[in-house]
Amino acid sequence: MSFPEQKLSQVTRSMGVSFIREMLRATKGIEGMISLAGGLPSPDSFPKKQLAALFKEVVEKEGTDVLQYGASEGDDILKEQILRVEKEGAVSKEEILITDGSTNGIYFFARALINPGDVVICEGPSFNGTLVAIEACGAELDALPMDEEGLRVDLVRETIVSRQNAGHTVKFIYTIPEFQNPSGRTMSLARRRELIRVARELGVFILEDQPYRDLRFMGGRIDSLWNIARAEYGDDETVTICKSFSKILGPGLRLGFAVGPAGLIAAMAKWAQKVIVSPEGVVQRVVARFLERNMLEPHIERITGMYREKREIMISSLKDTMPPSIRWTEPEGGLFVWLTCPESFDTDALFHEAAKAGVAYIPGSKFYPSAVARKNEIRLNFSYAKPADLREGVARLAKILKR
Amino acid sequence: MSFPEQKLSQVTRSMGVSFIREMLRATKGIEGMISLAGGLPSPDSFPKKQLAALFKEVVEKEGTDVLQYGASEGDDILKEQILRVEKEGAVSKEEILITDGSTNGIYFFARALINPGDVVICEGPSFNGTLVAIEACGAELDALPMDEEGLRVDLVRETIVSRQNAGHTVKFIYTIPEFQNPSGRTMSLARRRELIRVARELGVFILEDQPYRDLRFMGGRIDSLWNIARAEYGDDETVTICKSFSKILGPGLRLGFAVGPAGLIAAMAKWAQKVIVSPEGVVQRVVARFLERNMLEPHIERITGMYREKREIMISSLKDTMPPSIRWTEPEGGLFVWLTCPESFDTDALFHEAAKAGVAYIPGSKFYPSAVARKNEIRLNFSYAKPADLREGVARLAKILKR
């Protein structure tokens, strides 16, 4: 019996299927296929041995505690370690919510703030996975372009003002300032300051999504938006930051955290209570012990070394094989390189040709709201494939793009 | 700086603080306090040793898989084991969604179906934690009374008909048929059949919440609603069942699953993708291996033995100490006994007196929508306190209720 579609809630019915997931499924398990498509960390980056030992130890020694119901806000011991280790400036535990990964924090943030019809500003292109979560809360998205310094804050200002003049409520600006997904771009310090000024002036929040922040291979670390807001304006209200252990320890752990104004964190925790009751107890404590024993820093050093090398291979392969009409970003960290082809290219159509040639990517159009989608761009991932496959995958793609 | 309340979404602003959580907090850590209040499993019920060994093994041997991104629908290997072990009749993997505990499944179920203003029928009293999750999705709740056989289906029918005549959409009936929280009551087989007939006739779904189903200490197992619907009507659409490993292996694991019509499970998975991306990978595989190695059955035998004894202690203590005007349920399983005092009692007010006397409970009023709340009832938990404390706690409470 097939389930009657009309019985589903209106929001559910309007939710599309994830094209990225469909594409990944379509190209999975094909013999010889090199995938530069997903956003998967390298399995070699998982600290399996350390985690295995900690899981055993934590369940044995602290099982009575971690197997029991825990706080919706998250484990206090993990929060203490986040306060100690995170280099984003001191906060109190009341400003931290432990989440089931970064997307989970973004969902609770959106739920806590969005009334149906509210507007959210985002980068175009941006990460589809979180955009659909924000839309599911009833928000309307305005995707605005970036340049080499990141989100065009002049356009952010213009858009907010015109939306406000039309009587709309612009609730927040969603940005991935570091090694953005999909573009690999990083927002400059000047641009960050400008964005905070505009948000403060116009009464709009900023949601700073930072899943890749600690994966910097080169260049100097730039202050996070929420650190700038606090340090330079004494403002602990405008910015909320979401971070994740997914790209550091393994996405299967589903662990991240949000740091923001205590009143908003409390509102997000109310949602957490209803939606997940609390984050997983064992994983939280395992990661707390991992941080406590200072295992994080050497681990990050090891994996950024590995990813730096993979990035080099991808960039040099692009230089060696791509026609001169193709441009790409050279990210200082993260997982992605963004290719821009001449305007005449249709990378949606080329996807199938590339798949036949044994290489998968994500067409750039998948990172825009459909109304403003551009067809001449490509996201390439360099974290997952093995070095030889990175070279070969780029070469296969270059052949397709040369035609 | 305190966060401006008016910036929060309307739904978030309307969410109350959880009185139960506040009460638990207020009585926690007080010297000599015996808590019969929470719904916590006994820490002695956690299979720590087995889990510790499995966590280590799974991360070591399967870390590449379980630490990576997984399916929003849940781990296939865990689904296979659920199909093999669960005694609810065979289903396919497409009818299973792995969730972050039972509440999480209930939330996705409500999101998949509820449009703002839709009506949901529930038992009065019922578990507040899930009611607020359903309300957060915009549903209006009609709480209907139970008798010794469970939910009064005659009133369910009447209410649905009158709601439908008034132009309202009644989306589903939410029931905890086994060892209900808070009443400890179990719905009879005849009543289950009647409920399914009414739901089918009037085009309303049933959400069957079964967190305690496997904690039966005595009496014969009764078929689940979804099994009856399938076996007797060939109906695989009306009922969705949510189960949980919380009361079996430990609530800190945050692991449960829903079984229902494939189309609805797919819609719930769309929400899972946006809200949590996927359930936690390591925990899913650990529980899969626990089931695969047939560790579940002997474990359940052990803990039901332990809880049977605790239930006996509580019931016999009630018999020994309570005044004749007080009645209570004698549940065949689960975690709770439900006391009914004479109408003149106000157990909200008595809570503070009891706390001073060193015993905590949850006033019955907390399990009703405030409009229909009854003040003369009490929920007592027998799973958490040690045997001697169960006796002493009941005795302390009896003294208060005798006055």
What does this structure look like?
- Two copies of one chain form a homodimer.
- Chain A is α/β, with parallel strands linked by helices and 403 residues long.
- Chain A folds into two domains: 148 residues, Aspartate Aminotransferase, domain 1 (Alpha-Beta Complex); 244 residues, Type I PLP-dependent aspartate aminotransferase-like (Major domain) (Aspartate Aminotransferase, domain 2).
- Chain A has 14 helices and 15 strands.
- Chain A has a seven-stranded mixed beta sheet with strand order 2-10-9-8-7-3-4, with helices on both faces. A four-stranded antiparallel beta sheet of chain A has the order 11-12-15-14. A two-stranded parallel sheet of chain A has the order 1-13.
- In chain A, strand 3, helix 6 and strand 4 form a beta-alpha-beta unit.
- The longest helix of chain A has 26 residues.
- Chains A and B meet through helix 1, helix 3, helix 5, helix 6 and helix 10 of A and helix 1, helix 3, helix 5, helix 6 and helix 10 of B.
